[in-house]
Structure formats: C-alpha cells, structure tokens
Amino acid sequence: MDLVDTFKTIACASPETLFKEKNSKFFGYAFPILSENEVKPLIEPLRKKHFNAVHFCYGFQTGIDPISFRTNDDGEPSNSAGMPIYGQIQSFDVTNVLIVVVRYFGGTKLGIGGLISAYKTTAQLTLEASTIIEKTIDVHYCIAFDYKNMNKVMRVIKEKNITIIAQKMEMNCEMEIATRKKNAEMIFDIFNSMFEIEIKKKIMPIN
Predict the structure, then answer these.
(1) d(CA 153, CA 199)
(2) From CA 62, how far away is CA 181, in angstroms rounded?
(3) What are phi and psi of 52, to 5 degrees?
(4) Which end of the chain has less Cβ packing within 10 Å, N or C?
(5) What is the C-alpha separation between 152 and 57, in angstroms, rounded?
C-alpha cells in the first residue's frame, strides 16, 4: 500500500458567493488556514462588513493525521448550520480550510431542513468557486556536520532532489531540509548512516 503524502486545500481566499432562499441571503466565504487561531481574525472583518447580518456560522478543518475540526451554529438551531458547512469540507476532501456563511434573515422561517439545505448549498457553492490545489506532505530534518563533510552532504541532496529550507555554513554547518513524506525514511537512513553527520526530525504544521 502506497503511503499517502498529498492533500487538497484551497490556494487562496474564495470570491464571495451568494445563495438566496425565501428572502434570506446567505453569503459564503472560504479561507485557507493552518490553525484555529486564525478563525476569529478572519470572521471579525466579515462582522464589520455585514453589520446587519444575524448569523455568522462556520466550519473548519486543519491537519491530515490527525485532523482538527470545529463547527459553530452562531445562534441557529443546533447542527443546522455548522455541520452542513463542515459536511461540504469533507465532501470536497479538503483540509486547512475555513468556510464562513453569513445569513441575513428574510422574514420567513426556513425550518431545520431548510436551514440545513441552505447552509450546505452555500458552502458547496463557495468551494466550487474556490481554487482547489494539491500539496505534498513534506517532512523536515535538521542536519549538522563539519564543513569538511559538505561535499558528501550536497551530493545526497542533489541526487535525491532534497529541498534546502535554511542553512548556516561555517566550520560547524547546520541545514534544514525537506523531502516528501514517502521518501522521508530513506533520506533519514542515508544521513543517519553517514560518519560525522547528525540528523533529527523537525516538527512542522501541515501547510
């Protein structure tokens, strides 16, 4: 079984989408995020833009394995808004994504079924309007070595198509490198077996 080392996300914030149901308006927005800390700062400008709106519901997911997700109905009946939004994130198989749906009440109650349908449709339209891209899951390592070993380190980096993220070249050299997850164990073993070279994994968020 092949190791999965790619994931889908959105390239940038989506254009605004609008769905109407019985005079209620639902504005949809999608944003790329890396953590829950980004959610509130992204919603605040929407609250200012739509100051007459009554509900700012959202769903988000970050990470791959494990994933982290949360939903918020923001005053709508329980599970009638946030979960239908999150369901579309799952349906499109994307992660590191926040979807916010802003609702203006049109004077006619939609009922639970109507709300679920409206929030689901708005989230769907928002993701359809987004640019969905595929990214690789990369593993980062820090390697340390004496300058005299530079050539053999660089030879492996060139042969194995390894990306150099950062480097400090002095008598004692340090380098941060990145490689696709499916190649990570092999790359670690190569450097780990080399004389006078230290390698350790660097913990990184999935982005």
Answers:
(1) 11
(2) 18
(3) -95, 0
(4) N
(5) 54
Closest by CA position to 20, among listed 146, 138, 106, 113: 106
**Do the Cβ atoms of 158 and 177 come closer than 8 Å?**
no
Q: Pairing relation of β-strands 97-104 and 67-72?
A: unpaired
113 and 13 both lie in a single domain: yes
pLDDT at 177 over 60: yes
Residue whose pair of structure tokens reads 């004496």 in the numeric block:
146
Q: What are 31's strand-pairing partners?
A: 98
> What CA–CA distance (Å, rounded) separates 36 from 121?
24
Going by pLDDT thresholds of 50, 70 and 90, the confidence category of residue 3 is: low
Would you say residue 1 lies in a domain? no
- Residue 98: pLDDT above 60? yes
**Per-residue pLDDT, 205:** 67
Count the Cβ atoms, other than its own, within 10 Å of residue 150.
Answer: 13
The beta strand positions in 73-112, using DSSP E, are: 97-104
Once rounded to an integer, what is the mean pLDDT over residues 195-204?
88
Report how many domains make up the chain.
2
Residue appearing with tokens 């929030």: 119
Would you call 204 helix, strand, or coil by DSSP?
Answer: coil
Q: With cut-offs at 50, 70 and 90, classify the pLDDT of residue 143.
A: very high
SS3 177: strand
pLDDT (tens digit, 9 = 90+) per residue, 27-62? Answer: 999 999 999 999 999 999 999 999 999 999 999 999
pTM as predicted:
0.81
Looking at the structure, tell me whether residues 172 and 185 fall in a common domain.
yes
